[in-house]
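Handout, page 2. Input:
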Amino acid sequence: MTGENVGIPILTGRLTSEQRDRLTRLINDPPPGSKLAAAKEYGVDLTLFLSTLELTPTERLERLQEAQSFLEELRRAAGATAPESIKKKSRRSRPKRKRS
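Output:
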């Protein structure tokens, strides 16, 4: 969107049917010239936003944590089978994480 407020509050829980209907209309027919319209024209599947917004914040966080675990597992698996030159490059390119 172009910075305009479309009147949808920050969501703290599940969508109401009214919110879902409003978002569905917005996604299916975004305002001309808006960033949503540009994204849709570019080929972005805007329904993914809606499906994510239908989750509670806790469910969203759980999905994010699952995705992070999956990516870490992929990195470990790729590192175990990658040639040594790629392993060295991969270690240098990843930022170090602080442990808390």
